[in-house]
Structures are given as C-alpha cells and as structure tokens.
Design brief:
The structure holds two protein chains of two kinds.
Chain A lengths: L2 H20 L8 H13 L2 H33 L1 H14 L8 H8 L3 H25 L3 H9 L4 H39 L4 H10 L4 H25 L13
Chain B lengths: L3 E14 L2 E14 L3 E5 L6 H9 L6 E6 L2 E2 L7 E4 L11 H5 L8 H14 L15 H14 L4 E5 L7 H18 L2 E6 L2 H7 L2 E5 L6 E6 L11 H14 L6
Classes of the chains: A mainly alpha, B alpha/beta.
C-alpha cells in the first residue's frame, strides 16, 4: 500500500533526471547532483551540523513561545475582561510578519542565535496565544458547571476540566505553529546567522552558485519539516485526546 | 407529613439583554419534600430550566431565596448534583474515569468499590474502559446518572435528561430511573416538557405557565408504581395537565 506513493515519487524523480539530462543548463540541478550534494555536505560534517543548528533554534523559539503563550492565553480566555484589554494589542501585533522584526531582532540581540530564536518565538507566540484564548472560550459550559458542581478547587478545575478540554485544540495549534516556525527559521538564518539550513542555501549561492547544494538544502528542509509534522500528528492519536478530532 | 428538603420562596428572575429586561420567573413558591420525585413541566421557554439552574446554585435569583435543608443556596454543591442531557459527560475520560470524577476525596479502594457498584447499577458493565464517543446516547445518559449517584447526593436535578434520546430508549431510561430512585431514595427534581413523562415518573407535577413562568398548579399523582398508563386515573391526571397547559389532547 505504501509502495504506490513511493513508486510515484520515484517516477517523478526519474522524469526530473531525464528532463535535466536532455536540456543541460543551469536552471535546475538534477536529482543525482542533489544527492551528491547531500553526500558532500555529510562528508564535510556540515549536514548534521546545520540540521542541528536549525532544529536548536526552532526548538528554543517554539518551546519558549509555547511555555509563555499557552498559560497566558488560557488566562486571557478565562477572564473575559483580560480579553477585552489585550485584544486590540494582539490584533495589531499579529498580522506583522515575523520577518518585519528582523532589523529589530538584530538591533536587540545582534547577529547570532538569539536573534533567530527571537524571530521563531515571535512567529509562534501570537498564533499559540490566539489558539489558547479560543480554546478556553469554546469549552462547553456544561463541563465547567459539572466541575463546579462536584466541588473542584480552582487548581483541580484547571487540571481536570480546563486542561483536558483545551488539549485537542492546543495540539492542532502547536502542530500548525511548528510548521510555521520551520518556515521562518530558514528566512531568519538567511539574514541573522551563519549556520543552519537557511544559511546553507544563501551561502551555497553566494560561494559559487552551487545550486546542487541549494536544492540539497531545500530537500533537507522539506524532509525534516515533514518528519516534525508526523511527530506532532502522532500526539493526536493518543486515546484520551482523540475525542476532540472525531466527528461524533 | 414529610419534611421539606428544598423550598423556593418568592423567587423572581429577570434577564437583562441589550438593556432590555425580560422577566423569566415570577413569584415562584415551591416546597419539595425529602425523597420526593417532583416533575416540573411547562411549555418551552417558560423558565423551567432557569428555575432548575437557580435551585442548583448556578445562577442567583433576582429576588427571593432558595433554601435546601433550611440553608440558603449560594452556589453549586456536591451534595446536590445536576444532570445535564448526556452532553455533560467528559469526553476525555473513560466510563470509569467519569464515574470516579467526583470521588477524589475518597480512598482508592472506596472509589473503586463505588465505581464498580454504579457501573453495575446502570448496566455499563464491560464498558469500564470505553470513551463516551463510543457509547450510544442512552449509555451516555446512564453514565451521567451514574456519575451523579456515585457522590451519594441528597438531591438530583435532571434537566430534560431524556430529551435527546429516541422514544424506545426514553421509555427504558424512565423505568431504570425509577428503579434506581426506589433503591437510593434521593430527592429528584426533574424538568421536562413531556407531560406523559411527568405523569409516569413523579409523585407530584408542578405545571408552569408561559413566560414569565409561574407555578399554575401542583398535581398529586396518586398512583402507585408500577403505573398502568392505560388506567382511568392515569388518563384523567394526564388530561388535566394538558388542559391546564392549554392543550386539547386531540391532534
């Protein structure tokens, strides 16, 4: 069953190779060149180093955003006054592309990991904050009333009603946001640092138009992004979370 | 004369929406006796659910007071449990987890004992580890009743609990509720818009008027259980309530 999509992918790669060998030129390297490029990077120890560098920034930016945005969002969503107060600010900050923050990130943190992490943090923070606010607000009142009825203390209420009720929506939000973070890290690395997969792509072009390495970087970004999404999706299969995803 | 469990005294309720005030309940006076099964019936929108929410402590009345065991109700309390339609079960907990939800103060052994007892009582044996979205509507409703009974409440508030079930399941659920009530003897206050349901279940039926809701009449259902729903007395009581609500029993 899994064989057919793989066979199709193989056919596409073959087509790519044939097309490139028939029209030699510099528009696009062929798959074999790209594969050689990946091996070359691996031999120099750059592949693993750059992947780790990119993942390191995404992990920190994403984790910091999750740790701050989710509790804050849950609080804001729970107290409707807080939502009224914060909403205008959130709505204005949210549509600003994280890339627009690059000059300020460099001004505050210099060229380096911190600036990149800050950008990832920004691009994760607002979507997660909004997801958390929305998740609390959409908890059906019956669950909250049932919790109150059984005499739960405020902490027990958070642990046994609020948290489980918002988890499915939070997981969807985290999954989408991690995807965005992976998009943004590439852009951030093109400008703010000198390592990582994004840096690899600009560097390969600047240092002698090595488009095989450019595409190799792109392929690695695609594969890792896909693996990250698979990892997040596996959370949705946890049994006590799954109720939130079914139609019933 | 049995002692009074719950009393509603001169309760008025006014909702304010868009600066307009809308009276929902008007001068409600009602006494419920310990161990009684009281049904509140009325046309939809008459405020019967609001009245039940006031008794449950989820809303404060605009004026008047509600007392349980002589104490003014100031909020929800685990001694009196509100059963919503089957929507109230927690979808993230298994059958066992739901029934054990209110038992966090008990020892593990006692908790397990009660869970097993009430699973047996409502006929969910074999479904201990099942999540609610794999259960039918009737099973979810039984689960919610079991969750309520497990904390051993004095009073159960049921808000149209069988409203979302198909008519056959509804009939089974009624007789199961009666069976449970006859062993547990909690005070039950049961809101419904179904007059037959009220006459089949209740010791007394409080009939409410259109909004703003008032108690029009309290009817004693003086037929012993199990009730013959074709007996002349049953039909007479039922016809009386239909008439009171302003419905001829002919379509």
């Amino acid at each position: 069953m899994r064989l057919r999509p793989l066979a199709f992918l193989g056919a596409l790669l073959l087509l790519w190779q044939i097309a490139v060998s028939r029209h030699p030129g510099h528009l696009l390297p062929g798959p074999l060149e790209v594969l050689r490029g990946i091996f070359e990077l691996a031999q120099h120890g750059l592949l693993l180093k750059y992947i780790v560098a990119s993942l390191f920034r995404v992990t920190w930016g994403f984790a910091l955003a999750a740790v701050l945005a989710i509790p804050l969002g849950l609080l804001i969503g729970w107290y409707s006054r807080a939502e009224m107060a914060f909403n205008p600010l959130i709505q204005i900050l949210r549509p600003i592309s994280p890339l627009a923050w690059i000059p300020i990130a460099i001004l505050w943190f210099g060229v380096g990991d911190l600036a990149a992490i800050f950008l990832i943090f920004l691009c994760c923070f607002f979507p997660l904050l909004l997801t958390a606010i929305q998740a609390v607000r959409s908890i059906p009142e019956v669950y909250v009333n049932a919790g109150r009825n059984f005499g739960l203390s405020p902490t027990a209420m958070v642990a046994h009603v609020l948290y489980p009720a918002v988890i499915p929506q939070l997981i969807i939000g985290l999954r989408i946001t991690l995807g965005v973070a992976w998009l943004v890290v590439v852009a951030a690395e093109m400008i703010a640092v000198s390592s990582g997969l994004g840096f690899l792509i600009v560097d390969a072009r600047n240092a002698g138009n090595r488009y095989d390495l450019v595409v190799a970087g792109m392929v690695m970004i695609g594969i890792i992004g896909w693996l990250l999404d698979i990892g997040m999706r596996s959370l949705e299969r946890v049994k006590s979370f799954r109720w939130g995803y079914s139609e019933d | 004369m049995l002692e009074t469990k719950l009393s509603v005294e001169h309760v008025n309720m006014v909702f304010t929406r868009d600066a307009k005030s809308m009276p929902v309940l008007e001068e409600i006076d009602l006494d419920v006796r310990t161990g009684e099964f009281l049904c509140i019936v009325g046309p939809s929108g008459c405020g019967k659910s609001t009245l039940l929410n006031l008794m449950g402590g989820f809303l404060p009345p605009t004026s008047g007071s509600i007392r349980i065991d002589g104490e003014i109700v100031r909020g929800p309390d685990p001694r009196r449990i509100f059963v919503f339609q089957e929507r109230g079960v927690f979808p993230w907990l298994t059958v066992e987890g739901n029934i054990g939800f209110g038992l966090f103060k008990l020892s593990r052994a006692e908790r397990d004992r009660r869970i097993a007892h009430y699973i047996q009582m409502v006929g969910l044996k074999g479904f201990e580890q099942t999540y609610p979205n794999e259960l039918s509507g009737g099973m979810k409703q039984r689960l919610e009743v079991a969750r309520a009974l497990a904390v051993d409440p004095d009073v159960l508030f049921l808000d149209e609990p069988f409203g979302a079930l198909d008519s056959i399941t509804r009939l089974t659920m009624r007789s199961e509720l009666l069976r449970i009530w006859e062993t547990e003897r909690n005070t039950i206050i049961f809101v419904t818009h179904d007059i037959d349901e009220a006459v089949q279940l209740a010791d007394r039926v409080a009939v409410m008027s259109n909004r703003p809701g008032r108690i029009q009449q309290i009817v004693d259902i003086d037929i012993p259980h199990p009730r013959d729903i074709n007996s002349p007395r049953y039909l007479e009581l039922r016809a009386g309530i239909y008439k009171q609500i302003g419905l001829a029993h002919q379509i």
